[in-house]
Design a protein that fits this description.
This protein has about 220 residues and is an alpha/beta fold. The chain is built from 5 helices and 7 strands. It has helices at about 10-25, 55-65, 90-115, 140-160, 190-200, and strands at about 5, 25-30, 45, 70-75, 120-125, 165-170, 215. The chain has a single domain, classed as 3-Layer(aba) Sandwich (Rossmann fold), CATH 3.40.50. Bound molecules: NADP nicotinamide-adenine-dinucleotide phosphate.
Length: about 220
Amino acid sequence: MPTILITGANRGLGFALAQSYLKDGWRVFAACRNPDAQVPDGAEAVTLDIADSSSIKALKKKLHDIPIDILWNNAGIYLDKNQKLEQVDDRDWLRSFEINCIAPIRVAEALVDNLARSERKVIAFTSTKMASLAGNGPGAYAYRSSKVALNMAVRCFAQDQENLQISCLLLHPGHVRTDMGGFEGAIDVKTSVMSMRRLVDQVNPSNRTAYRSSYFDYDGSSIPW
Ligand SMILES: NC(=O)c1ccc[n+]([C@@H]2O[C@H](COP(=O)([O-])OP(=O)(O)OC[C@H]3O[C@@H](n4cnc5c(N)ncnc54)[C@H](OP(=O)(O)O)[C@@H]3O)[C@@H](O)[C@H]2O)c1
């Protein structure tokens, strides 16, 4: 049975991803920072605060040598939504780097052995189109810059994992109606998840070079860096 671990699986895109993989018969580890969080029926809840190294260590220990086909680094924060630069708290800016950039890489680093043991060996990182240097707009300093940093860190990490044949994908989920995306989002979670899965689910060690060094929109098109 293919296995996936999804971070931030208690709401929004993470919850919908978990539901979708469960429906297709996958073993789903739903990672949430709150141990009492609700996860979709059938998922195996695991506690993970992605910014806490001891929490990552405990998860690693719990998973032991279970193969993980897909690690979906989905959890993220957008603390400076609709804020002007003068309103952005530097602590929020730093927290954004911690959660959106450093933490997903640390989670991936901890679980590489589990990925290397699997058939698919895929790590999906949920980034955002707002991190495109070529297409950037105004504002969202903390969010945008933390996700740009994620994009670069993932490219470095992907090169380090070349010998293990692990594929690292950067994805924009679309502007999605979640707590983060707001009611004005252009698409619902189901559409986003279905579209991203079309891309992620076809990646494996034999075709991974076709997906290397790209950053994808949810419809599968490439986003300019
Ligand atoms: N929605 C959009 O339009 C949109 C667009 C572009 C990119 N994205 C990206 O898509 C991803 C998911 O977004 P979403 O819209 O589903 O957001 P959301 O509804 O706000 O959910 C965010 C999830 O991240 C979790 N999280 C935050 N900090 C965490 C931590 N320290 N440890 C573990 N989990 C943590 C939250 O857990 P708690 O419930 O415990 O807070 C929650 O499960 C994010 O990376 C986001 O940047 C979203």
